[in-house]
Specification:
By secondary structure, the chain is α/β, with parallel strands linked by helices. The chain has twelve helices and 14 strands.
């Protein structure tokens, strides 16, 4: 059956999610702020959850309509054929409602009205006045924008950034989905050098290593829709997991060309990063070390620094930032033909790095406005195949 799906993603990074969906072979229906919609079947639902690195979750679009009053919201919600999605024992609720520039703006009221409308529809269709709700979960996410209501059923469960490997985190971690998207914005590939001198719990190096392996980010976790036997036969899930495993490169093959390194001053955090990498199955591809940014060096050319240095969120930490960013800029200037990509909320980052970025992009890391600064080095010469 053909469905429309919605993949919410980081605001400003929709192009990365769109590219991933295109690479999976699905047609894009719409790209808007913070989400990408696409067409697909039951197989698409499974493959998108398992393979998308930059999406926050995958929603099955159940309906879209305009509503300027709670009466309109109730009637339009009741008109959706919920019996096609939710079995009689299904557990269903509106887990989140967000409203922008709409007459209806109270999330709790929107949630309550929509739940009542769903109950009324299902009572009529299942000839029942009571639902035990002991079966699989069907959680709705609802978006109101200029009075247009978009209704999606969450197929993922816990957010897709929860790959399952990050048991231990640093003080200011970057999410796995954001790290993957930022790496995708650079020309880095698995056979190029990558160093993160402020690696924290290892998210950038681990995501990069998984990309080098072509390892599916959701290959080792389950999703709430794995239990939707009324919509997706189990075979689709088995096939999608098997396909992802078959696409993975061998560790031996990747190890020969991979040079990924992560440093941090905190030995405890480095131990946590190593454990996270072990849980992700990529510990053999990353060299983690307790090391100051002042010791950053590499003998080879054309490498990449991709990093999330401290921003000075606490006032007392701000005084350390000029020296820290200055040292990062100094060490970068000593690396031959390297490129550097820095995500930071520190508004003096370029000044102390000592160079204006070639590009910068505004990115929201949670609710915090940050910039992704690109300091571009020379491109390596093209590899020419030798003729026999």
């Amino acid at each position: 059956m053909r469905y429309e799906f919605i993949a919410p993603c980081h605001f400003g990074l929709e192009a990365c999610t769109k590219r991933e969906i295109n690479d999976l072979g699905y047609d894009i229906s719409e790209v808007s702020d913070g989400k990408v919609s696409f067409w697909g079947d039951e197989e698409a639902l499974c493959r998108a959850n398992i393979n998308l690195r930059t999406a926050e979750r995958v929603l099955l679009k159940a309906g879209e309509f305009e509503a300027r009053s709670f009466e309109e919201l109730f009637e339009a919600t009741r008109a959706i054929p919920w019996e096609n999605y939710i079995p009689e024992d299904g557990r269903f609720w509106v887990t989140k409602a967000s409203s922008i520039k709409s007459k209806l703006f109270s999330p709790s009221d929107i949630q309550s009205v929509m739940k009542k409308a769903m109950v009324e529809r299902l009572k009529e269709k299942y000839h029942s006045s009571y639902f035990r709700e002991t079966g699989a979960e069907y959680a709705l996410r609802v978006f109101l924008h200029k009075d247009k209501v978009t209704v999606g059923i969450d197929t993922s469960g816990p957010s897709l950034h929860k790959r399952g490997y990050r048991k231990l985190t640093a003080k200011a971690p970057i999410t796995e989905t954001l790290a993957a998207a930022l790496i995708m914005l650079t020309p880095w590939r698995g056979d190029r050098i990558l160093v993160d001198p402020f690696c924290g719990s290892g998210t950038f190096p681990i995501e990069a290593a998984m990309m080098a392996m072509n390892m599916a980010p959701g290959g080792e976790r389950s999703f709430v829709s794995c239990h939707w036997d009324n919509i997706i036969p189990k075979k689709f899930w088995y096939d999608a997991y098997d396909e992802a495993k078959d696409m993975e490169k061998s560790l031996l093959e990747v190890k020969e060309v991979c040079d990924i390194q992560g440093y941090d001053l905190d030995g405890g955090i480095i131990a946590a990063a190593r454990e996270n990498a072990r849980l992700a199955g990529v510990e053999e591809l990353i060299h983690f070390q307790k090391r100051d940014v002042a010791m950053l060096s590499h003998p080879k050319k054309y490498g990449f620094i991709i990093t999330n240095p401290p921003y000075g969120e606490r006032l007392e930490d701000k005084k350390d930032l000029p020296a820290l960013y200055g040292k990062l800029g100094e060490r970068f200037s000593q690396l031959e033909d390297w490129s550097m990509y820095v995500i930071s909320a520190y508004d003096e980052a370029e000044r102390y790095i000592g160079r204006k970025a070639d590009k910068n992009r505004k990115i929201y890391n949670g609710m915090m406005k940050t910039y992704f600064y690109s300091f571009l080095g020379k491109k390596p010469p093209k590899r020419h195949e030798t003729k026999e």
